[in-house]
Amino acid sequence: MDLTGDDIDALVTWSLIRAAHQAQRGLTALFAEHGLSPVQFGVLSHLATGVEFTQAELARAVLVRPQSITGVLDGMVERGLIARGGERHKGRRNPLTLTAAGQDLLAVVWPAVREANRPERLGLNQAEVAALNGVLLRMVNGSRRPATAQEPNSPPGHGTGREV
């Protein structure tokens, strides 16, 4: 099979992967300066919304498997960045909350992340950033629910039960 660069560039998901790797490298370095991983940043950000999350809900929100997030959350509890709502018991809700230390760290990291997201830093204009983010959010939100979960003609994310 003979392919051209245009053939490769026509693969939207491959372009998405390439762009994601490029963005991830920059943000991972930024997070590392503050002792965070991308998943830990996601945890802090989601908890900062004030929405009550269980461990499984938080794993889904930051797009990792529930089994994979246990160690991440345990480390964040040990660092005093988040707290569990009570003793861990199977089958019982045990919401996680952001601590003052977690809020303080996010207050330092958030402006740097916002700076990294400025259109000119991304090589885009404001309209392109808004359009791209809209498409990406539709892709992310669409992958979180069964195909039958969305009502016909409803906006993406509507009626999913968890708007994060």
UniProtKB/TrEMBL annotation:
Residue numbers spanned by region Disordered: 144-164
Listed Pfam families: MarR_2 (PF12802)
An example Gene Ontology biological process: response to stress
One function term, GO molecular function aspect: DNA-binding transcription factor activity
Residue stretches spanning the membrane: none
HTH marR-type domain span: 9-141
Name listed for the protein in its UniProt record: DNA-binding MarR family transcriptional regulator
Organism in which the protein naturally occurs: Kineococcus radiotolerans
Organism phylogeny: Bacteria, Bacillati, Actinomycetota, Actinomycetes, Kineosporiales
